[in-house]
Amino acid sequence: MLLKNTYNEFIKIIAKPRSYIGLGVLTALILVILFAMKADGSSYISFVTASFEQTLSFNGNILNGNLIAFIILQMLIVHIPLLVALVTGDLISGEAAMGTIRMLATKPISRTNIVLSKFIAGAVYTLILTIWLAFLALVVVKWMFGSGDMIVLNSSGLVILQEGDIFWRYGCSFIVAYLALLTVSSLSICLSAFAENSIGPIVSTMGIIILFTIIGSLDVTVFDSIKKFLFTTHMASWRSFFEDPINLKDIWQSIIILVVHNILLVGIAVIKFNKKDITS
Amino acid sequence: MNEPIIEVKQLAKKFGDFEAVKDVSFTVNKGDVFGFLGPNGAGKSTTIRCLLSLISPNSGSIAIFGQNLSSNRSQILNNIGSIIEKPDFYRYLSAEKNLEIFARISGSDSSKKDIQEMLEFVGLNGRGKDKVKGFSHGMKQRLGIAQTLLHKPDLIILDEPTTGLDPQGIIEVRNLILRLKTEQNKTVVLSSHQLSEIEIIANRMVIINKGKSVIEGSVEALVNEQELLLQIELNNPENAIKLLATEYPNLVVKHLYGSTIEIAVEKDMVPKINYLLVNKGFEIHSLEPKRKLEDFFMKIIQE
After folding, report:
1. Can you give the pLDDT at residue B1?
2. Which of A8, A16, A278 lies nearest to residue B54, judging by beta carbons?
3. Which of A14, A98, A103, A196 to mutate to test the interface with B (most CBs of B within 10 A)?
4. Among candidates B80, B90, B105 on the partner chain, residue whose Cβ is nearest the Cβ of A12
5. Which of A196, A255, B161, B268 could bridge across to A96 with cysteines, CB 3.0–4.6 Å?
């Protein structure tokens, strides 16, 4: 029954126009970035490398596909959660608003399976969004700007990665980025179990992300103890794969915290939905 | 021997401090078209939602097909088709796709042919590919009935199935319900605040008021329990009232309107009154014995 309802959920997601907004917006944003880089990318690179030009000499194609893919990821990882929540925040509450939750809950499928099938469908949608991002960032961008060694500026300075040492880093980065987006999906599904309309869970999800991000960026000691447990702190962990050496311990910690968040959020959604009186 | 399909005992449900259902008990037997009657806010929908496990009752018990609902939920729901208030569908999907979705989780392996046949049964043949967002309320109601029947359940529960329908839609849905009984021998539970609907369709009923079941039994028996109201349209109604008061001092006779009088009588008095009036030269234009569920219902809920 879980698989059958998951299949139903895919049919619903595919048929809903809002499911394509995310893919469309993502494509448009990347096209805007690519246009900007094509038109004035050299100025952007000069701004980044200016402080090193007295000690280092940069030769070859610095503004290549590998660097632009990194820039795209860095810019969009803040906005993609909204695109994820737009679809996943509607999965349970949208049924309540439409009235179909009554039909669904009077069928011989357990409420736990209803929530789990929605979680699986949401996870697959998030995966498709992530794969689309990866395709645009790695395939299309490289096709337009070519490949080459990659320079990354992080808190410890400038890191230069060899061309042959980059692809696997992106692979791992997208896996961790997907896990972070999956947490956003689980959060919005969880909030969706409490709501009777779609707007509430979507806005609340973004509100929580903004709040946690602000807490995470405030340099105040009172928040130090909780910062590492906020999922937003680990949403940028994909960047760790572009450091040299890679801090695997931090990455594993992020993965564990994100997985625990997912389990807790889906668990809360299941408990809430099982106890809920459907009066809509 | 009646075989109970639904047995509800002392059901109660509170929402915060509000007691929506206080004490509801009734039994639905196999093959019944069972009317669940009550004024708005009586607790009908809450009780129906408890039967379908949409709401958890605070106390009382529900057994369906001889099994406890809370411990055999999936098994029981597998054999129930239902519409709660109004059937809502995925507006962005076609009628066929909606039926496919609900059939898939209803435990049936409905083929495209089954879906077509069901659409034909409810009068929606040729509209299967159309998106539901273009359907009228009546069409959605018929699609709702198709959805309830597709997995061939033995028990159909319909909560206010004619709400919001135009007169033609009401007749169509009512006829569909009657066909479920006559052609498919289903047990149907039908909640309504429309008395005429229950009177026409149901063979047994329970009346619920202020969260409590007030009376339960066969519709015919309950209606026959009340006295007959004889309405006579004749010339000179004032003289007729005087004559009847003289001849039958125990009768309650009143001038209803125009040239019509109303008399509360036992059935065997009707020919005697008719004979008396004709014999005394009154011209009788119409004589209508009325015994309506409406009067009985009003008496019950006002007590």
Report:
1. 57
2. A278
3. A103
4. B90
5. A196
Report how many helices (DSSP H) and strands (DSSP E) chain A contains, helices first. 12, 2
Positive or negative: CA dihedral B272, B273, B279, B283: negative
Q: Residue B76 carries which side chain, given as an amino acid letter? A: I
- State the smallest CA–CA distance between residue A261 and chain B in angstroms: 29
Chain position carrying tokens 């329908």: B165
Burial class (CB in 10 A: 0-12, 13-18, 19+), A48: middle
Q: How many CB pairs under 8 A join A and B?
A: 80
Taking domain B4-217, whether its CATH number is 3.40.50.300 is answered by yes
Ordered alpha helix ranges (H), chain B? 44-51, 73-77, 95-104, 112-121, 137-149, 167-184, 195-201, 219-225, 237-247, 270-279, 293-302
Give the CA angle between residues B229, B235, B238 to the nearest 5°. Answer: 70
Q: Distance between CA atoms of B225 and B291, rounded to whole angstroms?
A: 9
Question: Which residues in chain A have their CB less than 8 angstroms from residue B82's CB?
Answer: 106
Q: Which residue of A has its CA nearest to B14?
A: A277
Question: Is residue B23 scored above 80 in pLDDT?
Answer: yes
Identify whether the C-beta of residue A104 lies closer than 8 Å to the C-beta of residue A276. Answer: no
Which pair of structure tokens corresponds to residue A230?
A: 């906020």
For B37, B46, B105, B226, B266, the CA distances from B298, given in Å and listed in that order, are 12, 22, 42, 12, 20
Q: Between A7, A100, A278, which is nearest B89 by CB?
A: A100
Which of A16, A108, A279 has its CB closest to that of B77? Answer: A108
The first and second tokens of residue A181, run together, are: 């987006």
Residue B33 pLDDT more than 80? yes
Residue A280 CB partners (closer than 8 Å, separation 6+): A96, A97, A99, A101, A102, A196
Distance CA B148, CA B106 (A): 9
Q: Which residues of B255-269 are buried (b: 16+ CB within 10 A; e: fewer)?
A: eeeebbbbbebeeee
CA atoms of B113 and B204, how far apart (whole Å)? 35
User: Which residue ranges make up each domain of chain B?
Assistant: 4-217, 226-302
A228 inside 8 A of chain B by CB? no
Tokens of B142: 């018929």
Are B93 and A15 an interchain contact pair (Cβ–Cβ within 8 Å)?
yes
The domain B226-302: what is its CATH number? 3.30.70.250
Cα-based distances in Å from B204 to A45, A72, B64, B210, B261 = 83, 69, 17, 20, 32
Q: Tokens 């959920």 belong to which residue?
A: A9
- The segments of chain A whose pLDDT lies below 70 read 47-60, 155
pLDDT digits (tens, 9 = 90+) for A105-132: 999 999 999 999 999 999 999 999 999 9
Complex ipTM more than 0.95, yes or no? no
**Tally of CB atoms within 10 A around B125:** 12
> Would the CB atoms of B54 and A7 count as touching at under 8 Å?
no
